[in-house]
Amino acid sequence: MLDINRLRSNFNETVKRINTRGKKYPALQQYELLDKKWKKLTTEIQKLNTERNSLTNQIAKLIKDKKNDLANQAKLKVQTIKIDINELEKKLQNISAELDVVLHSIPNVPHDSVPIGKDEKNNLEIRKWGKPINFNFNFLSHWEIAQKKDYIDFERAVKLSGSRFTIYRNNGAKLIRALQSFTLDVNTKAGFLEMLPPVILNAQTLIGTGQLPKFEEDLFKLSNGQYLSPTAEVQLTSFYANEILLDKQLPIWLTANTSCFRSEAGSAGKDTKGVIRQHQFYKTEMVMITKPNDSYNSLEKMVANAEDILQKLNLPYRVILLCTGDQGFAAAKTYDIEVWLPSYGAYKEISSCSNCEDFQSRNLMLRYKENMSNKIIFPHTLNGSGLAIDRLWAAVLENYQQPDGAIKVPKALAKYFDNKEFI
Question: Which residue from 405, 411, 400, 354 is spatially nearest to 107, judged by alpha carbons?
Fold first, then answer.
């Protein structure tokens, strides 16, 4: 949620920057109208309070001067003013509640360094690492490899759960486990604290990180009103919700590998083969909670850590800076990392690292006490995939396939496969 003072003090400029996202946000106009009503009511209440205080002081003087009739008239006037104030305060509470709902529908303001653009065509390629392999044989897609080697069972997954679910088997399941362990090992060595949170969440937690109400159609909702987690970003960012941290506790770096669940609403026909777009998937997440003046330096560190995983696996990738029209609702700035998948003949997203500034911490009432000023401040929150495990699994199968059908084990994963060279 945006800082309402930012909107009040610099509304036109803030709206101008938000509109560079290239979408319509009726909530901005709703906010402007509601805020005018809020200001008007606040002014009226202040005037009535001033009048009531003045009359209260007069009453004391009138009683002292034994002007009881005038004192009684003033008391009646005070009672009337109290009734008027109560009515106005009720209206103000309703307006404030409406403002709160509207504010949750306004996206974050893109950082000044984010390029203005409509969609992914306007994203900027920052750098590439590694070169895509030129196979001298007829290479297979990851789903062809997996089915041929009995690493996966799509049909029985459909029988158990439906479409866009996967059952990993044999060395396919072992490779998933190896990648989960490897990504966590890299992250913890870099300084992230490993967590293992629940994947069933209440609505308030999802509101706090911006998934609700905007993206409810993308979530799996349970019959009791709770939801399946779409990403461990939600749990890790919300861990300190409604708390005031100490200055010395920051920065906080957290990582977790969990099952994630998304309905993939609106994705009919997209990536229907393989494991690129599933209802249930695995992801190792990174979250940083930092002081505002260090958040953009931290964003670069987060991206570098995700890149380090791909470099250790010797997988070609590129880093993209998203334009205003392509970045997420809660993000102020986002880098995507895309890994090379031979079956697509293209780079596919495997990590998205974002700085949300204080957008999420305001929702979550996550704060810290600054040492020097003793002020209570909202920290900045950052999140990123480190990495998307199913997509990483697909990248390893495709990029490490051999002419005889074997899969070469990346050196970084050898210890998870009893130091075997091939599987």
Answer: 354
Q: How far apart are the first and last CA of the chain?
A: 49
Place 265 in a pLDDT band, splitting at 50, 70 and 90. Answer: low
Q: Tell me if 228 sits within 8 A of 200, measured CB to CB.
A: yes
Residue 353 CA to residue 336 CA, distance in Å, equals: 6
Q: What is the mean pLDDT of residues 347-360?
A: 98
Residue-level pLDDT at 268: 60
Helix (H, G, I), strand (E, B) or coil at 368: strand
Tell me the pLDDT of the chain averaged across its residues.
Answer: 96
Sheet holding 376-377, edge to edge: 244-246, 367-369, 376-377
Instruction: Please give the structure tokens belonging to residue 103.
Output: 């504010």
**Angle formed by the axes of helices 26-64 and 68-103, to 10°?**
160
Residue 74 parent element (H or E) = helix 68-103
Residue with the two structure tokens 């079956």:
343
Interatomic CA distance for residues 88 and 81, integer angstroms? 10
**Angle in degrees, 0-180, between the axes of helices 170-190 and 389-399, rounded to the nearest 10:** 110
208 in Cβ contact with 236 (< 8 Å): no
In angstroms, rounded to a whole number, what is the distance separating the alpha carbons of residues 235 and 262? 15
**Residue 377 · residue 370 · CB < 8 Å:** yes
Exposure string (b/e) for 380-417, b if CB count within 10 Å is 16 or more?
A: bbbbbbbbbbbbbbbbbbbbbbeeeeebebbebbeebb
Q: Give every CB contact of residue 204 below 8 A, 6+ residues apart in sequence.
A: none
Pair type for strands 193-195 and 252-261: parallel
pTM: 0.93
Torsion of CA 214, 198, 231, 263, to 10 degrees: -60
Angle subtended at Cα 112 by Cα 106 and Cα 115, rounded to the nearest 5 degrees: 90
Please give the structure tokens belonging to residue 353.
């690292």
Q: Return all residues near 373 (Cβ < 8 A) that are at least 6 apart.
A: none
Model confidence over 182-232: pLDDT tens digits?
999 999 999 999 999 999 999 999 999 999 988 899 999 999 999 999 999
How many C-beta atoms surround the C-beta of residue 76 within 10 A? 11
Q: Which of 96, 81, 1 is nearest to 39 (CA)?
A: 96
Give me the pLDDT at residue 269, please: 64
With a CB cutoff of 8 Å and minimum separation 6, the contacts of 387 are: 183, 283, 284, 306, 309, 310, 337, 350, 351
Q: Which amino acid, residue 273? A: K
Whether omega before 198 lies within 30 degrees of 0, making that bond cis, reads no
